[in-house]
Request: fold
Amino acid sequence: MRKPIKRTVFLALFTLLFAHATLAQSDVRIPFFWDPQHRLEKPDLGPLKVIRFLTEDDYPPFHYALPDGSLAGFNVDLARAICDELKVQCTVQARRWDTLLDAMSDKSGDAVIASMAANQQTRSRLDFTAPYYNTPARFLTLKASQLTDFRPESLKGKTIGVVGKSAHEAYLGTFFKAVKLKPYESFAGLVGGLKLGEMDAAFGDGIAFAQFLGTPAGSDCCAFRSGPFLDAKYFGEGISIGVRKGDANLRKALDYALSKLAERGLYADLYLKHFPIGFY
Reply:
């Protein structure tokens, strides 16, 4: 699965904590995937002097091209911060999504940082670091809604909108059996239906909802409620950095750098920079 829009075993492997930060009078919950009690040792980088990161350029705010052609975004800033932490040179090059795995195979790059989910398909081609974010599901309602209790038994008989044939629809069908599901063909249709009052709440991708809430149309009408929901079976195992199979030295170096960035608060700074409306 390419995009977060298009994670309970996972929680057993990685501790997910939440730091809190105040930004523009909003409480933003920041994901933290690195156990502060388990300090990684800096690996011997050996001959590693430069890391060639591969990404793409059409998925803001994660990665995108500026008018002058240079790359920007959360993934791009994180790659550069990793190189600064490891004190190595860094390049970040854009490739089409469908060429990234082949570019790694032919050694055009050393690591992929392109919001790539670690799943059965991608693990057959790459090894992955620990996740640096995941794609939680969230409920969204109109701001005027009096709905505050989102336990399955409390939502009995309520109409919940979802994108049809999505993991979110499947999740509700399994764990919220007593709700009335109202599927929509697209994300735009889902949030449009919410604004028109066609449902009691919408359930979907937290990142897409956060981006919607960052628009004038979204900020005027709607608000997050409850969550996040992080079931790996439905919402994925997490978004990680991919390296070539067997490149344990680079994978360990990247894991070390990610943990240090989180420990020193730099990961939180980047998250707040690119996601002023947090998706957790």
About this structure: The chain has two domains: 9-134+237-274, 137-229.
